[in-house]
Design brief:
The protein is mostly helical. 88% of the residues lie in helices and 0% in strands. The protein contains three helices and no strands.
């Protein structure tokens, strides 16, 4: 296969896949990318709700981290207090 035939084969294969994708109703990559850009400027109320949810989840993770860290210290203190009795 010479280079001209190879390039022609790539063009034909790409065209066939474009036709199949169009018949299936799938958007092109660029359309999806533009849609994502448009979604970023979406509803400000939804954005604020999501930010509040993320803030709440971060607080919960901090509490869980503190419990995990304090658990070792608390357990050590409890054992020492039991030994002192």
């Amino acid at each position: 296969m010479n280079p001209f035939e190879f390039v022609l084969a790539i063009i034909v294969i790409t065209g066939v896949f474009q036709i199949i994708r169009a018949r299936m109703g799938l958007p092109a990559f660029r359309s999806r990318h533009r849609k994502l850009e448009n979604d970023q400027s979406g509803d400000p109320l939804e954005t604020e709700r999501l930010r509040d949810e993320v803030r709440g989840l971060k607080e919960r993770v901090q509490v869980l981290e503190r419990i995990a860290i304090e658990k070792n210290d608390t357990l050590s203190r409890e054992i020492e207090s039991l030994r002192d009795r």
